[in-house]
């Protein structure tokens, strides 16, 4: 088995690499952080290759696909992504456009191109890392981030049904974690008030549910599951007010 993991230098992506390596999977590790990837390589027990890439660059994303096409990967994990905190009229436009490129565009390109190859082979796994935010309505103070993760969720769900109707042996899953103790918080300039799950737990939970159970929606943590279920019964405007207050406490 061989897997590509984007955003493999830290957090959930790093722990997924460690766990997959322990399962005997060779790895292609993609990120901008060469030092962190080299440090990760040193503790892996299987073969690994480093790809330095800025996923904001569409050409480089397509170049990455051409590389992994030759590698004939079995697992694609679109993990790279980041967030930004603030009112939409005050937050930096270029940062938000970069976020759309990384959180949506890169995920879309890699998923679509790898999916075609996997369908031809009639095997493979795709795991798109979204967020519990992608299952909620709106996201005041993190509007662009919530919107990008909603895209990833809905994109992945649609592909699942298409694959099911083809009776394909290709499996797609979407990971929707709540608060996780990673560098995401520092990048987005937020601090979670709820207890965060460890990236080690989330990574193992996600891989096991993707690989062993072929689960579509993967939501780690009981509190997160309950929160998502309860949100479905709350009127939209009230839910937006509640979400705003929760987000405000993070800033």
- Rg, Cα atoms, Å: 17 Å
CATH topology heading: Rossmann fold
Shape annotation: globular
Distance between the termini: 42 Å
Q: What is the name of the CATH class? A: Alpha Beta
* Proportion of strand residues: 5-15%
If you average the pLDDT, what whole number results? 94
Structural class: alpha/beta
Number of strands: 7
How do the strands and helices of this protein lay out in sequence?
Blueprint: E1 2-6, H1 11-22, E2 26-31, H2 34-43, E3 48-52, H3 58-71, E4 75-78, H4 93-121, E5 124-129, H5 143-166, E6 170-175, H6 184-188, H7 199-211, E7 217-218, H8 222-231, H9 236-250
Task: List descriptors.
Rossmann fold; alpha/beta; 251 residues; 7-stranded parallel beta sheet; single chain
Quick recap of the structure?
With 251 residues, this protein is α/β, with parallel strands linked by helices. It is 53% helix and 14% strand.
Question: Can you describe this structure?
Answer:
The protein has helices at 11-22, 34-43, 58-71, 93-121, 143-166, 184-188, 199-211, 222-231, 236-250; strands spanning 2-6, 26-31, 48-52, 75-78, 124-129, 170-175, 217-218. 53% of the residues lie in helices and 14% in strands. The chain is an alpha/beta fold and 251 residues long. The relative contact order is 0.14. It has one domain (2-250): NAD(P)-binding Rossmann-like Domain (Rossmann fold, 3-Layer(aba) Sandwich). A 7-stranded parallel β-sheet has the order 3-2-1-4-5-6-7, with helices on both faces.
